[in-house]
Amino acid sequence: MALPVFEEYEPDGDCDCAGCAARRRALAAGSHPSARGCRRALVAVTAASAVIGGGGAAAAVAPGTGAVQARLPAADTEPPTEQGRTGPLHGPSGKPAAGAPLRSTTRAEIIDRAKKWVAAKVPYSMTKYWSDGYRQDCSGYVSMAWDLPGNEWTGTLASFADRIRREDLQPGDILLFHNPADPTSGSHVTIFGGWTDYTHSHYVAYEQTKPQTRKQSTPMAYWNNSASYVAYRYKGLTTAAGGGTSTADPFPGAASFGPGANNAQVTRLGQMLVERGGRRFYREGPGPRWTDADRRATQAFQLAQGWRGAEADGRPGPHTWRLLTGKTGRDIPAATTGGSTARPAFPGAAHFRPGANNAHVTRLGRQLVQRGFGRHYATGPGPRWTEADRRNVQDFQRALGWRGAEADGYPGPDTWRRLFAAR
């Protein structure tokens, strides 16, 4: 739904222009001012993609040197998401926390802090600060949940985080839309609380918006401007309460890996890959000199995540490194038994149906992962047939150009043959 364009302001008491009069009536009815007014700074809020009709706007011309257009919404059904600027931690009278070190926190702690504002029903405000010192708008809410040393805004939150893919979102990550051309035009941020179902079309969003903090099922990534939202993960995330190993171990850089590289980071990479199931790729080592074994083991790990093409080239990047150092993501699946390159015979469709639990399901899942079609697995693959198996099979079938009943996610003889065909 397109949101209206308007400018909110706090009217001067001695101004009798039509805009200030309309704003005073709106305030008397309980509307929330989110900026300073007619004779001070105006705050542009949400950009409209459609014109409001039917008397839902009031025009105003301020006296004096300039003319001000103000269009008020007919109803506050989906309020704007204008954002404040970076501010000190404890409000205007506090001291900025410039230069403060990044604080460590866990996913559970982030969500627990987010829940506190939901329970307290903290009112939305760009200018007010809650009792914990954080500004009561959406970026202040994330600053609070991430335990940042100051109140950030949508234009600075990304500097405290690493960009991730939407499918890798986990509780405590954020979805951020910042419009640099007009920061107050729809800029917003939500905290990801988890998927609502296996389709990943909706998620639980914690957000600070008018009239107060809320938690609700939200379409990915948001009700509007969905394509412009970017997923981020806090750099100070740790794996356990009270400390633990940081998932934000800095990536040493692409130049540390590849032909000719010889350094301790190559050794560390190999050791982490061995821990994640890559032992079979190393006849000796791992060691400090980059070899094809490192490349193949890295590629196997990337394929296990469901990555394809340039994302699975065998050269570690920041995302690969973050999963390995943080001990997250999927392990490298075991090699097929027997060492034979012969294609296994199709065991029959009955082995791949709801309720099925057998070794053929495990074999199917591992082959899907090896071929780069394992993105729906959160765990496994294993012997019990799940919706993740069906969706991964469906992805493979669609990659073959099949549609309709031919791409229903249930393997038949032709799907099996093509999946296990030598490449």
UniProtKB/TrEMBL annotation:
<keyword id="KW-0788">Thiol protease</keyword>
<dbReference type="InterPro" id="IPR036365">
    <property type="entry name" value="PGBD-like_sf"/>
</dbReference>
<dbReference type="InterPro" id="IPR000064">
    <property type="entry name" value="NLP_P60_dom"/>
</dbReference>
<dbReference type="InterPro" id="IPR038765">
    <property type="entry name" value="Papain-like_cys_pep_sf"/>
</dbReference>
<feature type="domain" description="NlpC/P60">
    <location>
        <begin position="104"/>
        <end position="234"/>
    </location>
</feature>
<keyword id="KW-0645">Protease</keyword>
<dbReference type="InterPro" id="IPR047763">
    <property type="entry name" value="PG_bind_dom_phiBT1-type"/>
</dbReference>
<protein>
    <submittedName>
        <fullName>Peptidoglycan-binding protein</fullName>
    </submittedName>
</protein>
<dbReference type="InterPro" id="IPR036366">
    <property type="entry name" value="PGBDSf"/>
</dbReference>
<comment type="similarity">
    <text>Belongs to the peptidase C40 family.</text>
</comment>
<feature type="region of interest" description="Disordered">
    <location>
        <begin position="72"/>
        <end position="102"/>
    </location>
</feature>
<keyword id="KW-0378">Hydrolase</keyword>
